């Protein structure tokens, strides 16, 4: 059964209906329409620490996007008092957290490449960038690879995405500007879709000078670095993986555009909408393609779209997203960014409960994460049992991919807890 979302390109399985996923993990809302409900709903507009109801503007016609919002009777957002009393819940992963054997060998050259691309504006910012441990992230989520060359390619690609992601989330950069986010996305996609046909217009980021002149220069430099890196990867990556990677990057940018519009209009989505946007507006799905590239996995369509494999893919995607939300939300909330599940749930009313404290919200999400990890154990076992029914030429790829996803779960959580990226909001802003 093909459970791809209608707004996703056909190159990659996309998360199953967020309504069904939300119900499975305890997020079902009796007051919210399902994502398939075609009726319009009024978003909630944030004003200070309260939300008011408003009609969608022409710039945010939710019927023209794959996302819907709904209003609820609760209009509140986390405050400094909520954060002061918040205790981080214990997060669990059933799979071992490993590190690639080549980490020590690739760390220094990859750090040097990252430094050259980002060009931090100060010694303190440079130290923070190194403390983020970007090469370690990839060496944790992909502790095995068919070659060091492919590992280095993936480290650089993911590091590039993380540096860009900082700009995409920063409220003074792209985080609250849907139009400029769209322009920058078009330049990136043109590079990924081109066949080495680059000229100076390919890297023209002068439209970003209105935000900050140095940001326009940085963005042009990053586009040139991406073009050079993509030229290397394209020569090594199988055509089917290239097609799927480009497709998932297009979906990723569509999610970023919608996220930016929500922030620009100061609108908080409902839970179902948030989960769907969250899946698209993180680069985890493109990372899964890069994982296949590093592992040398090449699926045929029948295997790629096997229901159990798709479901494990979706469970791991949600697990990583929710763990990231739990770890990063304190910094985001402290900086006035409420586009995270703790804030969404704290602001929402459901037919089953009303959260009285932010701590209750965090504890509930940690239980959801535990449920996801338990379901992942079941799916890994089920896929191994079913593997005898796959095409014999696909069996080794299936085992490598399933192991890769389980390593990705454990590695992502381990890195979230050890990187400086989610510990120091002020230091993160030094990079700009």
Automatic annotation (TrEMBL):
Q: Which UniProt keywords apply?
A: Lyase, Magnesium, Metal-binding
* Cross-referenced InterPro entries: Isoprenoid_synthase_dom_sf (IPR008949), Terpene_cyclase-like_2 (IPR034686)
A Gene Ontology annotation in the biological process aspect, one of them, is:
isoprenoid biosynthetic process
**Which EC number(s) does UniProt give?**
4.2.3.-
Tell me the enzyme class.
lyase
Q: Where is this region: Disordered?
A: 24-48
- Which co-factors does it depend on? Mg(2+)
Please indicate which superkingdom the organism of origin belongs to: Eukaryota
Q: Where is the composition biased (Low complexity)?
A: 32-43
Task: Name the Gene Ontology molecular function terms of this record.
Answer: metal ion binding; terpene synthase activity
One Pfam family matching this protein: Terpene_syn_C_2
**Which family is this sequence assigned to?**
Belongs to the terpene synthase family.
Q: What is this protein called?
A: Terpene synthase
Q: Which organism encodes this protein?
A: Aglaomorpha bonii
């Amino acid at each position: 059964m093909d459970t791809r979302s209608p707004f996703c390109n056909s190159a990659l399985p996309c998360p199953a209906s967020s309504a069904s996923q939300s119900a499975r993990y305890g997020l079902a809302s009796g007051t919210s329409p399902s994502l398939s409900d075609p009726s319009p709903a009024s978003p909630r507009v944030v004003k200070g620490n309260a939300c008011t109801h408003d009609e969608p503007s022409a710039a945010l016609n939710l019927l023209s996007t794959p996302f819907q919002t709904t209003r609820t009777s609760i209009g509140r957002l986390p405050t400094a008092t909520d954060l002061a009393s918040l205790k981080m819940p214990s997060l669990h992963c059933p799979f071992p957290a490993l590190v690639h054997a080549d980490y020590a060998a690739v760390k220094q050259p990859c750090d040097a490449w990252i430094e050259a691309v980002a060009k931090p504006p100060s010694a303190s910012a440079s130290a923070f960038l190194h403390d983020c441990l970007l090469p370690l992230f990839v060496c944790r989520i992909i502790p095995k690879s068919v070659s060091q060359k492919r590992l280095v390619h993936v480290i650089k690609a993911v590091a590039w995405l993380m540096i860009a992601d900082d700009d995409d989330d920063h409220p003074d950069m792209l985080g609250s500007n849907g139009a400029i986010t769209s322009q920058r996305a078009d330049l990136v996609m043109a590079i990924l879709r081109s066949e080495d046909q680059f000229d100076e217009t390919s890297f023209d980021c002068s439209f970003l000078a209105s935000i900050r002149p140095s940001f326009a220069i940085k963005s042009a430099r990053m586009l040139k670095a991406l073009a050079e890196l993509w030229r290397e990867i394209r020569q090594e990556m199988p055509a089917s993986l290239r097609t799927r990677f480009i497709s998932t990057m297009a979906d990723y940018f569509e999610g970023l555009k919608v996220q930016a519009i929500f922030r620009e209009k100061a609108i908080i989505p409902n839970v179902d909408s948030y989960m769907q946007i969250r899946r698209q507006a993180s680069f985890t799905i493109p990372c899964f393609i890069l994982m296949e590239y590093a592992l040398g996995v090449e699926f045929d369509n029948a295997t790629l779209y096997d229901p159990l494999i798709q479901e494990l893919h979706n469970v791991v995607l949600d697990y990583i997203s929710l763990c990231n939300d739990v770890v990063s939300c304190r910094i985001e909330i402290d900086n006035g960014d409420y586009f995270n599940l703790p804030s969404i749930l704290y602001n929402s009313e459901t037919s089953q409960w009303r959260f009285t404290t932010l701590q209750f919200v965090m504890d509930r999400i940690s239980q959801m994460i535990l449920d996801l990890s338990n379901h992942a154990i079941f799916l890994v076992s089920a896929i191994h049992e079913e593997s005898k029914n796959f095409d014999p030429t696909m069996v080794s790829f299936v085992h490598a991919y399933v192991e890769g996803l389980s390593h990705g779960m454990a590695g992502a959580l381990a890195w979230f807890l050890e990187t400086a990226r989610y510990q120091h909001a002020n230091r993160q802003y030094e990079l700009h």
